[in-house]
């Protein structure tokens, strides 16, 4: 469980988190909100990169103020936006091996983890490639593999599909689904409401450093005024309503519901 209790945080005296309460387990939670609302700042509290100026954050009961980022990254993996800027090794293998080697694991264990992490994101066979030669979607999956190799229980993914074409996006979505199915809790920071409706179980909306919504994705898109916060309702949700089939997350669901009525 990741728990935030009344978290406040200020950069140079300017408060950007104003008393956030939040908790999540092994679920997929979408963290949304306009630019500058505090999403990244909040997420950075969950692996200890930032510490609250007031309130506290607990990760599986560990108070982040009492533990280092290195300790917390074994529990919470953070995949940053545009992760390709963080690659520095010459091969995909070494890129993924970097974290486990730093943990002091034997080379045999390192190899096992690298294989497993690359397989989890569908990049088997890419070991000897240079990270820079990968496509956008492959780079994103490599970044996930690097974090996964630390075997974290929770993953924070910051805009994991931005800039990807439809096919690459689909591959990343599949990786996220399968990580969730294998028991990871996933915090998805995104501006993409289509991604939210496809993947998330719960939505948390930040605005001006405050939490204004925290609930099921269905309630967010049907009972909450998302447009007021500059967010768009996904087309599939609009379509479902117009066709009178209620809340749906995909075209397949619409077809299934219509088919069921015929
Ligand atoms: N290192 C920093 N120093 C000073 N101010 C910062 C720093 N990082 C973020 N801020 C400010 O804190 C506020 C919240 O920023 P944050 O990056 O958490 O928002 P966000 O919701 O993730 O935005 P976006 O959707 O644009 O990524 C913004 O006003 C931002 O300018």
From TrEMBL:
InterPro entries: AAA+_ATPase, ABC_transporter-like_ATP-bd, ABC_transporter-like_CS, ABC_transpr_CbiO/EcfA_su, ECF_ABC_transporter_ATP-bd, P-loop_NTPase. It comes from the Archaea. Residues 2-233 form the ABC transporter domain. Pfam families: ABC_tran (PF00005). CDD domains: ABC_cobalt_CbiO_domain1. It is found in: Cell membrane. GO terms for cellular component: ATP-binding cassette (ABC) transporter complex. The keyword Cell membrane applies. Probably part of an ABC transporter complex. Responsible for energy coupling to the transport system. Belongs to the ABC transporter superfamily. PANTHER family: ABC-TYPE COBALT TRANSPORT SYSTEM, ATPASE COMPONENT (PTHR43553:SF25), HEAVY METAL TRANSPORTER (PTHR43553). This is ABC-type cobalt transport system, ATPase component. It comes from Thermococcus kodakarensis (strain ATCC BAA-918 / JCM 12380 / KOD1) (Pyrococcus kodakaraensis (strain KOD1)).
């Amino acid at each position: 469980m990741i728990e935030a209790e009344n978290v406040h945080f200020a950069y140079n005296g300017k408060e950007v988190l104003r008393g956030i309460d939040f908790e999540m387990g092994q679920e997929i939670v979408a963290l949304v909100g306009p630019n500058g609302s505090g999403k990244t700042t909040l997420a950075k509290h969950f692996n200890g990169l930032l510490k609250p100026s007031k309130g506290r954050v607990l990760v599986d009961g560990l108070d982040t103020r009492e533990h280092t980022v290195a300790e917390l990254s074994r529990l919470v993996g953070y995949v940053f936006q545009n992760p390709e800027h963080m690659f520095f090794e010459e091969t995909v293998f070494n890129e993924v091996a970097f974290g486990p080697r730093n943990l002091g694991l034997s080379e045999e264990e390192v190899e096992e983890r690298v294989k497993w992490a690359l397989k989890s994101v569908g990049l088997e066979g890419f070991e000897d490639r240079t990270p820079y030669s990968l496509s956008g979607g492959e780079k994103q999956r490599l970044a996930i593999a690097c974090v996964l190799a630390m075997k974290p229980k929770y993953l924070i993914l910051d805009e994991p599909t931005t800039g990807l074409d439809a096919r690459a996006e689909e591959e990343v979505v599949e990786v996220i689904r399968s990580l969730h199915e294998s028991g990871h809790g996933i915090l998805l920071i995104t501006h993409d409401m289509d991604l939210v409706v496809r993947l998330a179980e719960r939505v948390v909306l930040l605005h001006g450093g405050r939490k204004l919504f925290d609930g099921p994705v269905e309630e967010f898109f049907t009972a909450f005024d998302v447009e007021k916060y500059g967010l768009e309702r996904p087309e599939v949700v609009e379509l479902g309503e117009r066709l009178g089939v209620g809340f749906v997350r995909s075209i397949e669901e619409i077809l299934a519901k219509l088919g069921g009525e015929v």
